[in-house]
Write a structure and sequence with these properties.
Layout (H helix, E strand, L loop, with lengths): L5 E6 L3 H11 L5 E4 L15 E2 L6 H21 L3 E2 L3 E5 L2 H13 L6 E5 H7 L9 E5 L3 E3 L1 H14 L3 E3 L4 E5 L2 E4 L2 E10 L10 H7 L2 E11 L10 E2 L1 H4 L3 H4 L2 H13 L1 H5 L5 E4 L5 E4 L3 E3 L8 H14 L6 E12 L4 E7 L2 E6 L4 H19 L10
Parallel strand pairs: 1-2, 1-12, 2-9, 5-14, 12-20
Antiparallel strand pairs: 3-8, 4-8, 5-7, 6-7, 10-11, 11-12, 13-16, 13-17, 13-18, 15-16, 19-20
Length: about 375
């Protein structure tokens, strides 16, 4: 006779772990989520809230597409703010516009990039006239408020029957069980979704996958903008980071020019982007510094650069800084960590800065595959 306490135990309450719990409880399974913190406090709340589907390629695009409908369903059922905003991209120079034009030419029949002239972009974003020469809209993308979404999802999952054991650290995991600081939990399936802290629980897997932490400088500002920002806004620096644009010769030329003109921003590994929250404030950032354990000290030069670049782009004279923080996410050479070191023990993470974009789809696919192989048939559950 089995002594199973849960059909599925999820370690980690970030977006990937919440996605795994959601996938399992919808299939009628008993789910326990274990997390050493009192609530989600990591990468899931320290980001732009930008669900950037259309800038992904390959497996990332597959997981992003799968995430899209899950985000819409969760926002409705859990009652948090989410908008089908798309993503704006501002082109300030001809080489940036050339990258967008190449991306628009290369897209297939399901076209999701639409070029904008300068007037169209200025109508949708409060930018300085003369600061941009055109841009684009990625139509597939979404935006949420990450600080509110994570807590709302936790509450919704709890209402569906998911048991959350917060302030409970997992100390060891294996096929069929999870040891925690409050005792052992027997499980049918175990999903480890601890993100950048994977080395604290499964160091061999972290080392083999080359997983380190990426620390980000970010800030939230307010300003008397003349109109709202209709969607998350990317720039030429952003195009250097996303797979949708990465293979183009035009992108290589853009990188050479930006890095040559602004080595200070290149040293920050800048992704100059912006999202506007419902209260009107802007999330501004971000820089990137990778290490096994990045230092906690944030150089003021990074924040000075963020404000200077924002002032050159937006039609406003000054910004008032409300908050600064250090973001963090798991980083590795590949975009995802997907392993099954033992039957029924699954280790998953987005190992680049696209967890909010891809995490729900990654978790959904993992549970589908796991349940196909395990003796835990789905019970129907919640539609």
């Amino acid at each position: 006779m089995t002594n199973r306490v849960a059909d599925v135990v999820v370690v980690g309450s970030g977006i990937v772990g919440l996605g795994a719990a959601y996938a399992a409880v919808r299939r009628g399974l008993r789910v326990v989520v274990v997390d050493r913190t009192a609530e989600p406090v990591g990468a899931t709340i320290r980001n732009f809230g930008h669900i950037c589907i259309g800038a992904q390629t390959g497996l990332g695009r597959e997981f992003a597409d799968a995430s899209h409908d899950i985000w819409l369903r969760l926002a409705t059922d859990a009652g948090f703010w989410l908008r089908e905003s798309g993503t704006l991209i501002a082109a300030r120079d001809l080489d940036e516009l050339a990258v967008l034009e190449r991306a628009a030419r290369e897209q297939g029949s399901d076209a999701d990039i639409r070029l904008l002239d300068a007037d169209e972009l200025l109508h949708r974003a409060p930018l300085r006239r003369g600061a941009v020469i055109g841009g684009a809209l990625i139509t597939t993308d979404l935006q949420t408020n990450p600080r509110e979404a994570a807590g709302a999802i936790v509450r919704h999952l709890a209402s569906l029957g998911v048991e959350f054991r917060f302030r409970t650290a997992a100390t060891a995991v294996a096929s069929g069980w999870v040891n925690t600081t409050r005792g052992t939990i027997d499980a049918g399936l175990v999903v480890v979704a601890t993100g950048h802290d994977i080395d604290q629980l499964l160091p061999d897997i972290a080392e083999r996958g080359g997983v380190v932490r990426c620390a980000l400088d970010m800030m939230r500002v307010t300003a008397p903008l003349p109109r709202t920002l209709d969607a998350p806004l990317l720039t030429g620096w952003s195009m250097l980071r996303y797979g949708r644009f990465g293979a183009f010769a035009e992108t290589a030329a853009l990188r050479e020019r930006l890095h040559g003109e602004r080595p200070d921003l290149a040293a920050l590994d800048l992704n100059q982007m912006y999202t506007q929250l419902p209260d009107g404030s802007l999330i501004v950032g971000d820089s990137h510094a990778k290490a096994i354990q990045p230092g906690p000290f944030q150089p003021e030069a990074a924040f000075d650069a963020f404000l200077a670049e924002a002032a050159a782009l937006f039609d406003v004279d000054r910004f008032h800084v409300r908050e600064r923080w250090q973001g963090v996410y798991a980083s590795a050479a590949s975009d995802f960590l997907i392993e099954e070191p033992e039957p029924g023990l699954h280790v998953i993470a987005a190992t680049t800065g696209i967890g909010m974009t891809t995490g729900l789809g990654l978790a959904e696919r993992t549970l589908d595959t796991a349940l196909d192989r395990a003796s835990l048939p789905a019970q129907g559950g919640t539609p």
